[in-house]
Design brief:
By secondary structure, the protein is of the alpha+beta class. It has a domain of about 80 residues: Alpha-Beta Plaits. The protein is about 40% helix and about 15% strand. The protein has 4 helices and 3 strands; from the N terminus they run H-E-H-E-E-H-H. It has a 3-stranded antiparallel β-sheet with strand order 1-3-2. The chain is elongated and about 65 Å long. The protein binds copper (II) ion (CU). Copper (II) ion binds next to helix 2.
Length: about 120
């Protein structure tokens, strides 16, 4: 019984190490505008299999670390597009984009104080 337990634990440790080894980091542009966009983008990527996601307002660069056995890079782009933001690879989903506050749409930075 003890041996079985030991084998199971060893297996679990090996599996989790494999999962860590498969985590990749990607950086790409996301056409957000403001701090509200930042929250929206980062919240949408708060998913199991995504261990880190941060979007920089000034450079508009999203840095994301994910498990590539759970997601492909294209799937990450799709998640962002469905939020209403264009990425380096994908157009924004227009329906979602139109639902964003004015300030958060392309060229919207000038409207950021209006809402
Ligand atoms: Cu915004």
């Amino acid at each position: 019984m003890k041996t079985t337990k030991y084998i199971i634990i060893t297996l679990l440790v090996t599996i989790s190490q494999l999962a860590i080894a498969k985590s990749v980091v990607k950086e790409f542009k996301v056409e957000g505008q403001c701090g509200e966009c930042k929250e929206r983008i980062e919240k949408a990527l708060d998913l199991p299999g995504i261990s880190f996601a941060t979007w920089d307002v000034d450079s508009k660069i999203l840095t994301v670390r994910f498990n590539d056995s759970k997601y492909t890079e294209n799937e990450i782009h799709t998640i962002i597009s469905k939020l209403g933001y264009a990425t380096a690879k994908l157009e924004a989903n227009k329906e979602a984009e139109n639902k964003l506050p004015k300030c958060c749409r392309p060229g919207g930075a000038a409207h950021c104080d209006e809402k």
